[in-house]
Amino acid sequence: MDWQAHRREAHKLGRTQEHLKQLVYGGNDGIVTTFAIVAGFAGAAADGVAQVGGLAVLVFGLANLFADAVSMGLGEYLSLRSQHDLYRARRQSELEEIANDPDHERMELFEILRQRGIPAGEADTAAGILSRHPDIMADMMMTYEFGMSHPEEDNPLISGLSTFLSFVVFGSIPLTPYFLLPPDDRTFLLSVIATALALVSLGLLRWNATGERLFRSVGETVLVGAICALVAFGVGWLVAG
Description:
Layout: H1 3-11, H2 15-18, H3 20-44, H4 54-100, H5 102-115, H6 120-130, H7 134-144, H8 156-171, H9 176-180, H10 185-210, H11 214-240
């Protein structure tokens, strides 16, 4: 069994937990962004000033959905790639500092260990042992001096794809009623209900993965979506008015 498989089994980490950030980030943004289009058009048509057909809602909604999904997926990919490059460059610099000035780096590690509550004698012994293993020492310095965790487990391609798929899957939900029904008040109401259910589902996904309180996980997710939807509806109403 490889180390990553053992880690997942030992800590009971599933795929949902490993990619929770991408799923929640992409899914929430997809729901909110797409429903903002629907709510904006609904707000514009509220006073009968701008009559917008269902085809227009779908065209703008789908265009926005896929454009933003690609943008967010690529953004996640490039962000993680940049983090990987920065980590490798900073770690290589740390290895060079350890090689060129081992006493200074050993003293830095000693102080780090002392600040974390290890007695001076034990900290000195540990720093002396670790200074004979530059790779391990560099990893510790990266974590405790620079606050940078090893990015080996974060696959930029998988993370970017997870963000993209989550955005598309959740973001398509507010548009679903407009594929099936004519654009009227009932269709908009169904879109509101579908959006609320999608936000609740995303909150439940977060709750299942993190073990946080159910009310907090679901409530925060729904609240953020509701605020964005109200803003979009209000902007559409103001523009039309």
